[in-house]
Amino acid sequence: MFKVAAAELEASVEDLELIHGEVRVKGVPGKVKTLRDIYRLSASFGAKHEPVLARANPPLPNAAPGPALHVARVRVDPETGRVQPIRLCGRPGCWQAINPATVEEQIHGGGAQGVGWPSTKKSSTTLPAHR
Hints:
By secondary structure, the protein is an alpha+beta fold. It has helices spanning 2-9, 35-43, 100-116, and strands spanning 16-19, 22-25, 32-34, 69-76, 83-91.
């Protein structure tokens, strides 16, 4: 992240600081790249910089899992039981994303798994139709 900002701001990595989602050149007002700018410069197709990758291991009490939410609207054919996803919404359960592209990929992957896995299972529960 700092390498991309340093190249774009024509500064050394040591002269940069991260404040409120912006990488700034210390003591030079206006020399700023937002995390969004850095993402676009490194994660888009044909980007001029390598992708920014990061890992974090925040302290989690009792190894609590990260929460997330997916809500799906589906259409079920009553004759065949075929389920057709209509709309899927996902929300990550993270604080501030260090790498928004990876978080977005996790949301998409979780949604795909959430739609795919139930289609391989049998259900013996009959639920009332809601309209």
